[in-house]
Amino acid sequence: MKYELYIARKIVSGKDTNNISKPMVAIAIGGVALGLAVIIISVAIVTGFQQEIRNKVIGFGGHIQISNFDSNNSYESVPVNYNQQLYDNLKNTKGVSSVQSFATKFGIIKTDDYFEGAILKGIASNYDWSFFKSKMVEGKPFVVNNNERSKEAVISKFLSKKLNLKLGQKMFMYFINKSTRQVMDFHICGIYETGLEEFDKQFILGDIAQIRRLNSWEPTQIGGYEVLINNFDDLDKEKDVVNETVGYDYSNPLKVRSIKDTSPQIFDWLNLQNMNVVIIIILMLAVAGINMISALLIIILERTNMIGTLKALGAGDWSIRKIFLYTAVYLVGFGIIAGNILAITICQLQIHFKFLKLDQSSYYIPYVPINFSIPAILLINIGTLIICVSMLIIPSIIITRITPVKAIRFN
Predict the structure, then answer these.
(1) pTM (2 decimals)?
(2) Are the C-beta atoms of 211 and 79 separated by less than 8 Å?
(3) Quick one: pLDDT at residue 409?
(4) CA angle 360, 363, 367 (to 5 degrees)
(5) What is residue 405's predicted lDDT score, i.e. its pLDDT?
(6) Exposure of 319 by Cβ count < 10 A (0-12 exposed, 13-18 middle, 19+ buried)?
(7) Ramachandran angles phi, psi of 48, nearest 5°
(8) Are strands 203-207 and 64-68 parallel, antiparallel or unpaired?
């Protein structure tokens, strides 16, 4: 074993006679542990919050939407002809998990005492119910049969409470189509709640065949396609791939938009959360680094006699600096281990017991979400170790200022 490493281990073990630095060393280790724990928990909460909100928005519109080129941002779909070949090509595209047909139409729900505007989203037999199944509070989804129109519908808990509609009741919805009023009755088979009030108060799920009837569409016409992908991080790349797959057909022009294009305000808001994490990381690393610098300086001053003796025996400045840098690595390592244990314990308790609650009306989520990512934790650990040790290289220069004669006499 190199003597620098051996001496560093002796210093860390505290077996030498000097104990002045022990409280400061304990504080430095605690500072690193607490700082690292705060960083890991902050990243887990912010990324968990972003993931939860993002998944809810995607649940209402898919990752990528393909619609008529002439359609605007209104909820009145402009029809396109269903293309089986395009559907198969999209579904077989690498990175795409599913493709589903949809159409939307604005209407008004009316009861004896209340009325409320809402959007009927028509879905087909290829619809992926995974998201809404996880958000169901009552009832269950309906089955779309291509051979007959279904009158069943799934509404939100928000609309259910506001309009006093119960599971199993009949719901009447009024539509205006070319200056003609049309009324349609639905049977409420399910009630969902996502917590994203902006969407909950708008969307009702029904059979796409009902929208075809309301708009006098052909049986082969739809409002567009929703494409779901496997990895959100590949959204921009997948959008380009879908664009190439769709191409341009003069007889049936289509446009491709990602969920970022259709809901830019939500994703801009989510991206702003990253700034909070950056500020927390900078502050925690600064606190941990300052604590470690203070501890290292005290350790160096406490062992000035040892430094002088080593220099008198022929040890070089860099060799002695390595002793204290090794010591710092040990101390930072202890802090990192303690910080990981603390952070992982809190994260796992929150994942399993959800003891930290939130006001869902304000945060769209009833509890503090946690995104437990092992690669992210590893990067945080490596980054903390590198930054803390790098900050200690400059303070260790004080060793080069110590002369053997004065150091040996130092008391």
Answers:
(1) 0.84
(2) no
(3) 60
(4) 60
(5) 59
(6) middle
(7) -65, -40
(8) unpaired
